[in-house]
């Protein structure tokens, strides 16, 4: 059965609308990404696809929501994620995350997501170009959501 690791960028962009103060071309791109992320999460839930996250994702989601001015919904989102997805504990992936850091030079949080994907042989889905590049550099299957139309993502997930 297919397994997916969702990066925090996808989770947060599925929740938050982009700021209207962004330049129009960037705002339009980010609205499209927001809608694609929402559609992806709905698809994953409807298809019963196993979604995995490193436990540290909860910390990152809380931090991002707080920084964007949404501290009150952070706990609700964390509870929803905890009830909806599978989590890999720090103990399970710590050593592998260090190996990923040494191989790729990716940021600390990114190493946890990449390590989770690697250990589970899962597809990593992100909106972070650097994370996608690091994952690809070690042979992982990674989808950069901004680069793909939703139909293509759906096809990849159904055929993998």
Automatic annotation (TrEMBL):
Domain of life: Archaea
Alphabetical UniProt keywords: Magnesium
Taxonomic source organism: Methanocaldococcus vulcanius (strain ATCC 700851 / DSM 12094 / M7)
Protein name: PilT protein domain protein
Domain PIN span(s) in chain numbering: 33-135
InterPro entries on file: PIN-like_dom_sf, PIN_dom, PIN_Pae0151-like, TypeII_TA_RNase_PINc/VapC
